[in-house]
Amino acid sequence: MKFRFIWIGKTKDKAWKALQDEYLGRLSHFVRCEVVDVRDSAPHEGVDIESKRIIENLNQKTFVVLLDVEGRKLSSPQLAEHIEKWQVRGLKEVSFIIGGASGVSPAVGEIADFSLSLSFLTFTHDMARVVLLEQLYRGFTIIKGFPYQK
């Protein structure tokens, strides 16, 4: 299985980038990972342009997980259960989408197979990326029975 992360903009802050790289490295022990940085929209462009760019970067047969404030709120063990289900289903690729500051267009929501919320709280995009990566890593450690999750 492969995890593909599609998000708007690059991580500019060095501290967040280091954490992102740390958890990508840890996660890559369990699953192949790829990051796709989608260009931010220009001031005259909107969420539809960003969403079009996101959709253009999706592989046709990928399982799409949209990070959305209105998505399902899962505990870490519940997320681990979903990861296991995806493995059992034989999914070749799972794409995680984090939209821009204004979210995504309804078109992205329509193609999502699963909608996930990281928290009732609001995070910066850099923070959301790191939290997602850490939670996916934590999910695999739960599946494997590693002591990290405690």
Question: If you had to describe this structure to a student in words, what would you say it looks like?
Answer:
With 150 residues, the protein is α/β, with parallel strands linked by helices. The protein has a single domain, classed as Alpha/beta knot. It is built from 5 helices and 5 strands. It has a 5-stranded parallel beta sheet with strand order 2-1-4-3-5. Helix 1 links the parallel strand 1 and strand 2. Helix 1 packs parallel to helix 5 and helix 3 packs across helix 5. The longest helix is centred in the C-terminal third of the chain and has 20 residues. The chain is globular. The protein starts with a strand and ends in a 6-residue tail after the last helix. The relative contact order is 0.24.
End-to-end Cα distance, whole Å, is: 25 Å
Structural class: alpha/beta
Instruction: Compute the number of helices.
Output: 5
CATH topology: Alpha/beta knot
Helix amount: 40-55%
Average of pLDDT = 94
User: At CATH's second level, what is the architecture?
Assistant: 3-Layer(aba) Sandwich
Report the uncertain regions.
none
Q: Which strand order does the major sheet show?
A: 2-1-4-3-5
Instruction: Please indicate the count of domains.
Output: 1
- Total strand count, please? 5
Q: What portion of the residues fall into strands of 2 or more residues? A: 15-25%
Shape: globular
